From TrEMBL:
The keyword NAD does not apply. Residues 46-103, 110-168 form the SMP domain. This is SMP domain-containing protein. The lineage of its organism: Eukaryota, Viridiplantae, Streptophyta, Embryophyta, Tracheophyta. Keywords: Repeat.
Length: 169
């Protein structure tokens, strides 16, 4: 029973990170409008890359494991529309880290933040998170877990939170 409050806290932190990112987007859009620059799309949605970065902020110190690698692979696939991971891309790097992490000491492990803090730059394409995207990414994360559960506050939950925010916009 003690884990439920932790999950709630992690989910609340994740939600807060995504809301903060959304508010920053809106402030930047207002500033662009004030400066006379070209206006961005009104109600711009939270992208897959932004949701990956929110997950990195939420659970960034955790080493990447197989469920994270699968979620990143699914996220990259949904963002780019490419059927296979890009050579040297986020998904390939996540898979390599998931395979290497069990064999190295704690200091040498690749963490989620090591990989995902630059997701906006590292993804060759990006798009707003939809409910279908979130469901597919969550399914991939569950498949990678030996227990069949996603990591609390992880990539799948970040995508679900982003999809909910996008639906409300």
């Amino acid at each position: 029973m003690k884990t439920k409050p932790i999950i709630y806290i992690q989910t609340a932190d994740l939600w807060e990170s995504l809301v903060t990112m959304k508010q920053q987007q809106e402030q930047q859009e207002q500033q662009r409008n004030y400066n006379g620059e070209v206006k961005g799309k009104p109600g711009e949605s939270i992208t897959i890359g932004e949701a990956l970065q929110a997950a990195a902020m939420n659970i960034g110190d955790e080493p990447i494991d197989d469920n994270d690698a699968r979620a990143v692979g699914s996220a990259e696939n949904r963002a780019t529309g490419f059927p296979a991971p890009e050579k040297g891309g986020l998904a390939a790097t996540a898979q390599a880290a998931a395979e290497l992490n069990p064999r190295v000491d704690a200091v040498a492990k690749t963490t989620i933040s090591n990989l995902l803090m630059g997701a906006l730059v590292d993804l060759p394409a990006d798009k707003g998170v939809t409910r279908k995207d979130a469901d597919k990414i969550m399914e991939a994360e569950k498949r990678g877990s030996s227990a069949g559960h996603p990591r609390p506050g992880g990539i799948g939950e970040a995508m679900e939170a982003a999809a909910k925010l996008n639906e409300q916009a």
